[in-house]
What we know:
Layout: E1 2-6, H1 10-22, E2 27-31, E3 43-47, H2 48-57, H3 59-67, E4 70-79, E5 82-95, H4 96-109, E6 113-115, E7 130-133, H5 140-144, H6 146-149, E8 152-165, E9 172-179, E10 182-192, E11 195-202, H7 204-209, H8 217-227, H9 229-232, E12 237-238, E13 251-256, E14 261-262, E15 265-267, H10 282-296, H11 304-334, H12 344-352, H13 364-374, H14 378-402
Parallel strand pairs: 1-2, 1-7, 2-6, 4-9, 7-15
Antiparallel strand pairs: 3-5, 4-5, 8-11, 8-12, 8-13, 9-10, 10-11, 14-15
Helix pairs in contact: 1-4, 1-10, 2-3, 3-4, 10-11, 13-14
Amino acid sequence: MKVACVGGGPAGLYLSILLKRQDPTHDVTVYERDPEGSTYGWGVTYWRGLLDLLQEHDPESARSVEEHSVRWRDGVAHVGDRAARHHGDEGFGIGRHRLLAILAARARELGVRLEYEHPVTGANPPAADLVVAADGAGSALRGHHAGHFGTEITGGRNHYVWLGTTKVFDAFTFAFTETDHGWIWAYGYGYGAEGSTCVVECAPRTWTGLGLDRADEAEGLVLLEKLFADVLDGHPLTARSAGRASAPWPVFRTVTNRTWSRGNLVLLGDAAHTTHYSVGAGTTLALEDAMALATALREPDAPLRDALAHYERARRTALLPAQSAARLSAQWYENLPRYIHLPPQQMFALLGQRHSPLLPYLPPRLYYRIDRAAGRLETLRRVKRRLGPVIARTVQARRLATGDRPGRPGRPDAVPAHRG
């Protein structure tokens, strides 16, 4: 099979690796519009489950990824001058540049052609038996056939910016700072000895009140360094890779598609779906997409259409928990005033429980007491697991039936409608 992967990110590179491992006679080319070695962002985060999958699908690249990753088990939340620390599951961070270099080297080793500085648009797709659109949330290939794919893009409420810092966090770090214009917060995680990723987010009123909508890049960084001075320990913040244009402080865009394929064209990773950055799952889901597509293509005599349909069905089902978690996580931050004044241990516990479908519908202190009790009583734990989805579905159905829109002014504890 002749395969063209458009997009040299983790999804496109890893798919090329898997296809060549399955059948070395496959003719696989990866097309990337940017020069080799250029990338946006700093580090990506993932968990043990992904590493196990990488080991299963390609032990060679898995070993290299693990070798160049940093690990943590703790999470720490700073709320003003208060802090709480929690020991949890093992997490990993790796520099995005390093991850791409590992995957590119492995792909070349297996005979994949990598064509950098080779942009592909919907008007000039490569001639191939299979064309894979792995060109991100703003996919040009998908956009050329947006009507067919049924693409919907929904903007979130809060503004965010993706930054780096030379401060190396030893735990997954959350920092919440109160200003005269509301709360602003950061997520920080290390990816190597050279530094950490630092994502900053705030509500629209805070963004405009602090003047971040009008500040130039340098002014904005100075202000953020002052606001988060306690956790940065004097280290600077840096903006996205020089020379790459990006919208300042965008809102997160949730991308969904009615279908993921058109003839021999198929969507992969962020081109097919996006999940809110606060769950740290984007790279993991993209790599899992690549695994599922490679598996679906394993049977050489199966019609391509059937293989692509099988891939889409499998991934849509597998994505449901992550997409639900992402929606709920985004809503938790959009309703931060509901939780921020709780005692530190309670606030941090509910931060960790922000994926729960039950949390938005109970008073936070009551939920915390139930959650603590559920940790001790198996019967209550089972009730809690079952009750959350039931309440969420019931409330959502009522809102859809009555046209009631959550999050209206005058309803301080309302929860915004699910996005995506």
